[in-house]
Design goal:
The complex is a heterodimer. Chain A is mainly β. Chain A has no helices and eleven strands. In chain A, strands 2, 4, 5, 9, 10 and 11 form a six-stranded mixed beta sheet that branches. The termini of chain A are far apart. By secondary structure, chain B is mainly beta. In chain B, the strands form two sheets. In chain B, strands 2, 4, 5, 6, 9, 10 and 11 form a seven-stranded mixed beta sheet that branches.
């Protein structure tokens, strides 16, 4: 069975600082990995995904993530935080495409300090 | 850009009542899902649906829950007799047969 662990339920950074949100996964087969963002009172929006191609994945809004098989990690980074990045971020794993369910981590709430 | 839509945005009901949550997936998508998020907790998978039948369901999806695609455009989640613990945000998602699920804005269900 797959599982996802997000280290840190709350992360706070200053505007302009590096954002690092941590995600570790467990999967018995090569996984597909995703980061979703949830802004207040909105649904889940896909930020980026890893599906066994390039290990460094670039997404929307300047975010990127690197798949590291040896560390079973898929951490999300952004070089310079913006106030509009304040949101809840969810890491998720699935086995493959099609009907496969997503298994989500607990989420990390990102706060940006002016 | 096509989006998944959900109605209503907020539903308040009394314990024991039936509720139907409605979703319109993106046209031409083949796979449909329901997830829920209890306040302060992670997003949890409930059920997936393909070719007019359930592909997979979680332990949460017991006999009180059912899904239907009645007319080729809507996708509904019915809870027959709501309990207090059913209070949550319910998300619908659809997938065109790729690796990406597209989520709707959610329906907040409050059971009193």
């Amino acid at each position: 069975a797959q599982s996802v662990t997000q280290l840190g339920s709350h992360v706070s950074v200053s505007e302009g600082a590096l954002v690092l949100l941590r995600c570790n996964y467990s999967s018995s087969v090569p996984p597909y990995l995703f980061w979703y963002v949830q802004y207040p009172n909105q649904g889940l929006q896909l930020l980026l995904k890893y599906t066994s191609a390039a290990t460094l994945v670039k997404g929307i809004n300047g975010f990127e993530a690197e798949f590291k098989k040896s560390e079973t990690s898929f951490h999300l980074t952004k070089p310079s935080a913006h106030m509009s990045d304040a949101a809840e971020y969810f890491c998720a794993v699935s086995l493959a495409q099609g009907a496969q369910k997503l298994v989500f981590g607990q989420g990390t709430r990102l706060t940006i300090n002016p | 850009e096509p989006e998944v839509t959900q109605t209503p945005s907020h539903q308040v009901t009394q314990m024991g009542q039936e509720v139907i949550l409605r979703c319109v997936p993106i046209s031409n998508h083949l796979y449909f899902y329901w997830y829920r998020q209890i306040l302060g907790q992670k997003v949890e998978f409930l059920v997936s649906f393909y070719n007019n039948e359930i592909s997979e369901k979680s332990e949460i999806f017991d006999d009180q829950f059912s899904v239907e695609r009645p007319d080729g455009s809507n996708f509904t989640l019915k809870i027959r007799s709501t309990k207090l613990e059913d209070s949550a945000m319910y998300f619908c998602a659809s997938n065109p047969d790729t690796d990406t699920q597209y989520f709707g804005p959610g329906t907040r269900l409050t059971v009193l």
